[in-house]
Specification:
The chain has 437 residues and is of the alpha+beta class. The chain contains 10 helices and 20 strands. It has 2 domains: 57-287, Rossmann fold, CATH 3.40.50.300; 300-436, no CATH class. The two termini are 49 Å apart. The structure holds adenosine-5'-diphosphate and magnesium ion. This is ABC-type quaternary amine transporter.
């Protein structure tokens, strides 16, 4: 058997709603087949239950480190590679997020790991074993999709039990495991509820419980939160991380949402054109991006002019360190985070008189800084973001004749008194390393 290529449409929704007691044996086989596509667990299906897959102590004791090496994947008829020399190592117990825009190959990478996509080149190792040619149902991995893909005519408990049944787990054990997993996802009190009566967030918890019920060696999550509203998304994301840490399950999580990635990952791999452009801890990725793509994909960034030599740049009169991978030369573009800038009110030091004459703006106490005008002030609770436009003549031509806009982010209590739309300010870089491109 193989998983449905399109798990978005649960097959069971096409079957008539019926109670489990009324199910006939033939229906059961059909359901089991649908379940293999639905439960997100790669079992061998009803005809060949896999021995001792659930709670398999050996599998759990095994270190579940993953190594994907030099993977190439081209879909039939496609001119370009969906995976292009894709490489990824995941340590046992680690949660790695693949982050990237639509179509960059995230799902393909996850499905290749699951054994749901043929690959043209490369090798997949789990716990030191070569799984490259091994069928999906022999990989002991479980998956949760964006769509809840539960059986609507079964209760939460029955959905999980049925997943276990498909895996050949003895009847006596099913209920205990299912109840245990429902408790893990905080749904003990909903065990008897039909999943079609549950909210999206609850359904996704059931899907997660069902995936975890078979004690998979690897948990795969493909945009599991994308269909949920913002508040539930945040709650469930934190729950997934808590459970993942509690169970120690090696996990690959795919999302296009940078905030989600930053919040839950041990490491984030930023994908672009079928490969990982940079993989690092969230903080490193944010503070030390290795490329323009990564810097602009995660967080906000200003593009400011600077002269770059010998590992240092001069930006608006201030010297800062350059990150590895930076370009060098005159008039390069520095990628600078809004919080790596500060501002003061212009005129405080008696320089305001020259403001309208357009002299260049080396006017901060140490001679650094540029004159700007405030365009907007956004209060974000503890933080405040100030959009400014540079007014010094010196920089007017730099941005192809367009105004040079600079966004500054401060702690709310750092915002000088009297800064509002139209205020004249001096924007000054803080001494924080940046990437030159
Ligand atoms: N079944 C398929 N047949 C043909 N092309 C596909 C198929 N699935 C994905 N692709 C293409 O492969 C590329 C990567 O897709 P995918 O892995 O789904 O990206 P992501 O999950 O990052 O949005 C895209 O260009 C997409 O159009
Ligand atoms: Mg996808």
């Amino acid at each position: 058997m193989s998983m449905s290529k399109s798990p978005m449409v649960p097959a069971a929704q096409a079957t008539p709603v019926q109670t489990s007691s009324a199910r006939k044996a033939s229906t059961r086989t059909a359901l089991a087949q649908a379940a293999s596509a639905q439960t997100g667990q790669f079992s061998a299906g009803a005809t060949a239950p896999r021995a001792a897959s659930a709670g398999d102590a050996d599998d759990k004791a095994d270190t579940a480190g993953i190594r994907m090496q030099h993977i190439d994947k081209t879909y039939p008829g496609s001119p370009s590679k969906a995976l292009d020399d894709f490489n990824l190592d995941i340590k046992a117990g680690e949660l790695v997020v693949l982050l990237g825009g639509s179509g960059c190959g995230k799902s393909t990478a996850l499905r290749a790991l699951a054994g749901l996509e043929d690959i043209q080149a490369g090798r997949i190792m789990v716990a030191g074993h070569d799984l490259t040619g091994v069928a999906a149902n022999k990989r002991n991995m479980a998956m949760v999709f964006q769509a809840y893909s539960l059986f609507p005519h079964m209760t939460a408990l029955q959905n999980i039990e049925f997943g276990l049944e498909v895996h050949g787990v003895a009847k006596a054990k099913r209920r205990t495991i299912a109840q245990e997993k429902l408790e893990l996802v905080g749904l003990s009190d909903q065990a008897g509820k039909y999943t079609q009566q549950m909210s999206g967030g609850q359904q996704q918890r059931v899907a997660l419980a069902r995936a975890l019920a078979v004690s998979p060696r690897v948990l795969l999550l493909d945009e599991p939160l994308s269909a949920l509203d913002a508040k539930v998304r945040v709650q469930l994301r934190d729950e997934i991380r808590r459970i993942q840490l509690e169970t120690g399950t090696t996990t690959l999580f795919v999302t296009h949402d940078q905030e989600e990635a930053l919040a839950i990952a041990d490491r984030i791999g930023v994908m672009n054109h079928g490969r990982i452009e940079q993989i690092d801890a969230p903080k490193t990725l944010y503070q030390r991006p290795a490329s323009e793509y990564v810097a602009t994909f995660i967080g906000l960034t200003n593009r400011l002019p600077g002269d770059c030599h010998d590992g240092r740049a001069t930006v608006f009169g201030r010297q800062i360190e350059l990150l590895a991978g930076s370009q060098t030369g005159e008039a390069r573009t520095l990628l600078i985070r809004p919080e790596a800038l500060t501002l003061s009110v212009d005129g405080a030091g008696g320089v305001g008189a020259s403001y309208d004459s357009g002299v260049s703006g080396s006017v901060a106490a140490d001679g650094a800084g540029v004159r700007a005008r405030v365009e907007a002030v956004h209060f974000l609770g503890a933080l405040v973001r100030v959009d400014t436009v540079v007014v010094s003549d010196e920089w007017q031509r730099w941005n192809d004749g367009n105004p040079l806009t600079v966004t500054v982010q401060l702690q709310e209590n750092e915002l000088p008194m009297g800064v509002h739309i139209g205020s004249k300010v001096i924007v000054t870089p803080r001494v924080i390393p940046a990437l030159a491109v």
